[in-house]
Amino acid sequence: MGRTPLRMAAATTLATLFIASTATAGYAGTEEVTNPTPVDGTPGHYIVVLKSDPLASYTGDVNGLKATKPAEGEQLETQSQDSQRYVQHLEAEQQTVAQEAGVTPEISYQVVLNGFSAELTGAQVDKLRASKDVYDVYPDFIRHPDAQTSTDFLGLGDDKKGRGGVWQQTGGVDKAGEGVVVGVIDTGIAPEHPSFEGKKLKKQPKNDKRHKGGQPYTDGTFVYFDKSDGGQFQSTMVEAQEWDKGDYSSKLIGAQYFYTGAEAAGFDFQYDYLSPRDGDGHGSHTASTAAGNFGVKASIEDVDFGKISGVAPGAKVAAYKACYVGPDEAVTTDDICAGSDLIAAIDQAVADGVDVINYSIGGGAASTVLAPEDIAFFNAAAAGVFVATSAGNDGPDSVTADHASPWYTTVAASTIPTWEGTVQFDGFAQAGASVSVPFGTTVTGPSIYAGDAPAAGQAAADAALCLPGTLDAAKVTGHIVVCDRGGNARAEKSQVVKDAGGMGVVLVNVPGGADSLDNDFHAVPTVHLSSVHRAAVLAYVQGGADRPITLVGENTTGVVTPVPQIAGFSSRGPMLADGSDIMKPDIAAPGVAILAATQNGPGEAPTFGILSGTSMASPHIAGLAALYLGERPNAKPAEVKSAMMTTAYDTVNPDGSANKDPFQQGAGQVDPKRYFNPGLLYLNDVPDWAAFLEGKGLAEFDGVEPIDGSDLNIASFSIGSLASAQSVTRTVTATEKGTFTASVDLPGVDVAVEPSTLKFTKPGQTATYTVTFDNQSAPVEQWATGSLTWTSKSNSVRSPIAVFPVTADAPAEVEGTGVEGATTVEITPGVDGALALGLSGLTPFSLLEDPDGRVVGHSGDEASGDENKDVSWIVDVPEGTTLSRFDLDSSDDAGSDLDLTVYRVVSADDLRYYERWQSATGSADEQVTLPAPTAGTYLVVANVYSTSAPMTWDMTYANVQPEGEGAFTATPNPIEAVRGQATSYELSWTGLTAGTRYLGLVQYGESAVRTIVTVDAQ
User: Fold this and answer.
1) Is 186 a catalytic residue?
2) Which residue from 345, 392, 423, 663 could staple onto 571, CB 3.0 to 4.6 Å apart?
3) pLDDT tens-digit profile of 681-718?
4) Is 282 marked active-site?
């Protein structure tokens, strides 16, 4: 990631990064606290990331060690002599760092991350964070799996022979993804399953002469496979619980497992296999969806569902188990995917030589583009590996999507034509999801609402949910029971009804709750209806006694359910991570009622499951990436992603109208029938991602100039703050000759494309264009969305757009001097009319004095601090504070390096913390600024990292209140604003105390736009 980190200034809330032994990311609604004191560090399990580049992005800056970053069009060669020498160098470096801190590493990472995981004491945490060789120390965290055939719906080919679609165009199902390895990081895999059936591996010594298209083989220790890109896959064969070397085959060529992080969290493995074997089904399901064999007969509970296939049936599969299942099969909250194990799996997958990674793992709404997983995937992409990730299952609310970084593809879930049944009664016939009413048959009986049939001593609200033991058998027997969704597993509801003597179920979603329709296998015939039908169903059933209802095993309404729709559970954008200049999700793919392989034990019959989730959508994209790479082995991840996005089409709303919301669908529904011929490509690689990160202030790279986040050369446009005209630039690469003309659909925003026509005389040519966005009538402080399309005679290339018009474009900070004075502030309003200026302050900075009383008039000197060179203070932030700032200032700017960390803690006597902010650059002075901080107790820690001569340093802070000193005034106030027309106002003050610094704040209207004001009253 570069050798010198910049400040990580954004708050790291423990709602997203938990210590493995405390809680899961799924429970972020109430504040959790770490344990015990941040001053002494937090004992626990950690991921230690070093500053030196990992293997995938090393550029050769160590004397005697050649660069290992793959050249343009090549794959990472992890087994080369140069790579092995650099890996040894990293291992030695890690051991040195660990030994200096008295740490014993558990897992070592060298390929996509340079670091290790370990159990650390509080003192070791502090010592490692202070090390000049350490980038950061991250608490281990917990993630969870995000849970007509989809291949036929996507146009890949028919289910019988694979004809009539993309598979046939690429040479048939056996060639679909040939020479490509799909790595699946998940809950493991069922090796005997027919979806992964292959030939026995031939045993022979390793052959250094590679043969594209050859069969995998083994030397008894490793599996080798010569890939279509000229690289070689090489993976260790393991033997573990219910797993041996005979489980590998010509299809399943890799399988490993990682568990030390889960073990450190105290996880009980008795409900799973401590091996690559899948004990949950999620991993087998995602793997078979991405690259399972073609034409596998599938049945569930004696119901024949015909044949299923993976998206890239000709590809090989490598499973990397990092997730383990808990005792309750109905939930994922007792499962575990420890962050350190996940990173170990990513590291190993790239080291082995996979071409594609599927990562159907989630942890809630992303708060940054540079979490530990993101760093690992940055380097995986640098190594040429395409990564598909699930967007998460926290929809339909906005700002819920996970995985915010631009170097991988984040996938939303959409619907496909599925198995349906019909609920009929007088004046009503509506279709819903059903696989438990036999096709073509009917079930008719008297009806009752479960909430009207509570058992003695049971609450009606619990009975309405059909919770176990809540129904009165005397009322329910022989009835079709209407059950509300929620409270317990959907399939359990039908079992409760059966146990009470019921003959069928109408399962209705409740308005405001989850509204997906799920094909569960129920204990009695059941049809699952949308929430929009609940009122009508209850009005009928409760309008009389024993009113008849009929359940039909097919859709008899004559109305075809519109597809693809974005699933209600699919997490939405926008992404608020690091400025909102990256739009997510990127694309949508089938993720509702997906039939695929699930788990089985040794000697047991293979099983299949119908599952829904963005977990099911992501492997469709992973499989399509494998299909693309089978045809174009040397394509970079950005090429594959761009080709998918620009050829996607709109999903639909429930009424069949086009859904144009990019925060739901990204670029739209993936279209395999078009993505091999995208017309234009938006290409980007490591230098572009590095420039993006530098522009965000998240990292530093040698020889890289920062860019605005909106200028990253990706196939979407997102501007997180638009007050006046803003131009962004893109460069496209043609895949065909032709002339392309631009058109834009963005209501309320004036958009100019220059040039508006691009002409290419042959494939491979590039052209650069600029798009200028200027708000005209779109409401401020909310997103305006649309699209830009380049159209030629034979093709169209579409990119989604999202811009956020704001009240004003104003400077982040202004400065003034004098006990009495003024300064002019220039702004560009984004609105017309009176724009009020809300002032807070001025508030004087206060010096945090040397706690030892040794350095009078200052906070410390070169000799200050404990054994870790830390000095700390408690600061109270009162209610109503609009801005807090903490400044660390050295008298020796050239020869000293200080670091600053601020924590919001439980109390002065309980230093467990809720949030942490850090400013730790290589410079002498540091600063942490907190807009609208939560009132409470804060711990301020200054670290005297290094000094070269006697010096002093000052730690000051200010908490800005609405009322302050100095008669702080803005003139004029309000401003008569004209949208897009630059104007100015004057800030003035008087009567300040000489020799004191002051802090103030200006708010523009009721918006989130602010200008910080500092005054040095000399």
Assistant:
1) yes
2) 392
3) 999 999 999 999 999 888 888 889 999 999 999 999 99
4) yes
